[in-house]
Amino acid sequence: MKSSRLLSILLLLQTRGRMTAAELAGELEVSVRTVYRDAEALAAAGVPLYGDAGHSGGYQLLDGYRTRLTGLAAGEAEALFLTSMPGPAAELGLGRALSTAQLKLRAALPAELRAQADRMRLRFHLDAPGWYAEHEETPHLARVADAVWRGRIVEVRYRRWKAPHEVDRRLAPYGLVLKAGRWYLVAGTAAAPEAAAAPGTTAPAGPPYTYRVDQVLAVRETDEECALPDGFELASHWRRTQAEFHERLYPEEAEVRVSARAAARLSGAQAGALATTGIPDPELPGWTRAVLPIESQDHAEAQFLELGAEAEVLAPPALRRRIGAAAAATAARYGTAGAGAATEAGAGAGTGGADRNG
User: Fold this and answer.
1) Mean per-residue pLDDT for 332-342?
2) What is the pTM of this model?
3) Residue 317: which residues within 8 A CB-CB, separation 6 or more?
4) Distance of CA 297 to the CA centre of its chain
């Protein structure tokens, strides 16, 4: 709707300052030409909006201009109450502040919007952690969050998985991320104290790395300021980090065919691969054949054995032979009759299966 888009342009320029037409178009998911027309409409309506051409140009409101058109639509008011997460806010030491902010927002809403927001709060609840994840204490989260907010170098004692398991680090905190109920710190490595900047000045820091906050054993905030790297944006960095993690997590592939029951038990990248590349199996009606990403043959062996007779690995041959041998050994443990049949199946898995797939 054009009126809503015009208001969005006003609020974006009011909160962010100068923005190019391309940046506005990206935020509003419209064409640059549409932004040009909207800017002309705002100027014609008397809004003190001006634009500069050139590489460093863009649209900007006249200094001091503020719009008061901040009324909330029904969906916007509902969304604000839906996105509040009291658990994480409390962990950051902001639980009371969040409750107070919600109370003030609710009191400021018209009666109709207040009723809709109350229905949203009563009927929806966000619980981020997974079912089987144990709650992990993060005793130093508040201090880490304070350093992030204040832009201060921190000296931490950190526990990692490889030796030496406890290390000391000087970190420039760039941001905090809550992922599946676990807090992560995105930070760069700061210079050593003797090479650090003087108090009150900005200290140089390296590229961002990710640290689990629950593995921080001790933390001390310094007086040294740190700044975000040029062009750093936390959400974009996290998306890239997640994509790179999944690429490293699944470096190998396996060709499999699975029944509908087994397909329903796949998740994550494997479920995605099955949905995008799976084809009906020509030999088994109702089954699907696909190439799935796997972490390693060790991990894949355990995973596909869990699926039992509802899945069959076709390639690579080495993985097929491993699963066939494991199935034969399992059958042998449960009786001699089953052992003979399983041994034949295992032999076929190591030979016939490989022949069928070249």
Assistant:
1) 61
2) 0.60
3) 350, 353, 354, 357
4) 27
